Sequence to fold (137 residues):
Amino acid sequence: MGRTILAVVAGMVVAMLTMHVFEYGSARLHPLPPGIDPRDPAAMSAHVAGAPWPAMLSVLAGWVTAAFDGGLLAALISRRHKRGAALTVGALIVCGVIAVSLLLPHAWWMIAAGVLLPLPASWLGAQLARRRVDAAT
Fold:
């Protein structure tokens, strides 16, 4: 059980790093205007609402890619609960998407995709890990 918990934690660390990389790309496509306070919810809501498609797709791609690579790593580390560890990473990302969407309004399609796609992506990561382990034995 300890190894599975470690797998989920490691998967989440990798997932968070992945999301930061994609969010950095989104910020390059849609930078904050000069003088905006990132701690001001109203200003950030207006900024997110005005984001162009490529910036929003970058964030969505980050959520899905993070679920995939975080799930893959969790499945590779976990011995007994590969699929469970990977799906836990995906579920935590879905929880994060919901939390972020409650704090800052996002486009409906982005929220829908952000809720629906991470679990299949993390499952796919687990499947890839299982095939890798099966091929090695």
